[in-house]
Amino acid sequence: MIFLRGTIALQTLALFLAPITAGLLLTTPNGHVLHSASAYTIWTVAVLQVIAAVLVWRPGGGSPRAIPYAAVFLGLVTAQVFLGIAHVTTVHVPLGVLLFGVSLVQLSRPSACLPPRGRSRRPDRPASRVAA
Predict the structure, then answer these.
(1) Is 48 a residue whose pLDDT tops 60?
(2) Which of 6, 7, 12, 10 is nearest to 105 (CA)?
(3) What pLDDT is recorded for position 113?
């Protein structure tokens, strides 16, 4: 569960740095290299987030709620990369802002990675009263 939380934090940080590299893209001759690197970093972290969400759910006994979020986010990031390559800035820029906002909201939710209430992580043990 900590790995999933870490991927969301890393994703939010990378999404925060992407507009900075976009500014470098506009002002320096080699800025496109940094912006491209940040884009592929975000994509890689989104793939890791899907893997972490599945691992938290299946072997970890956590909630499967993070899987659809991670899959949709990966799809949007993939679209963002293709829009950037195609230079469709009228969609690329607002989608980047949306991705950062959604990532920030997901990071701020403390229960995003917790198992469902009332369910013990160990099948031979009942859930505690606090969780019920």
Answers:
(1) yes
(2) 12
(3) 47
**Which string of DSSP letters, residue by residue, matches 52-76?**
HHHHHHTTT---TTHHHHHHHHHHH
Q: What CA–CA distance (Å, rounded) separates 28 from 105? A: 32
pTM: 0.78
48 vs 70: CA distance, rounded Å? 9
Q: What is the DSSP letter of 116?
A: P
Burial class (CB in 10 A: 0-12, 13-18, 19+), 65: middle
Query: For the chain, how many residues are written?
Result: 132
> What are 49-69's pLDDT values in tens digits?
999 999 988 887 788 888 999
106 CA to centre of own chain: 8
Per-residue pLDDT, 128: 55
**Lookup: tokens for 57:** 């759910």
The mean per-residue pLDDT over the stretch 90-115 comes to: 84
Residue 116, token pair as written in the block: 């469902």
Cα 45 from Cα 20, distance rounded (Å) = 18
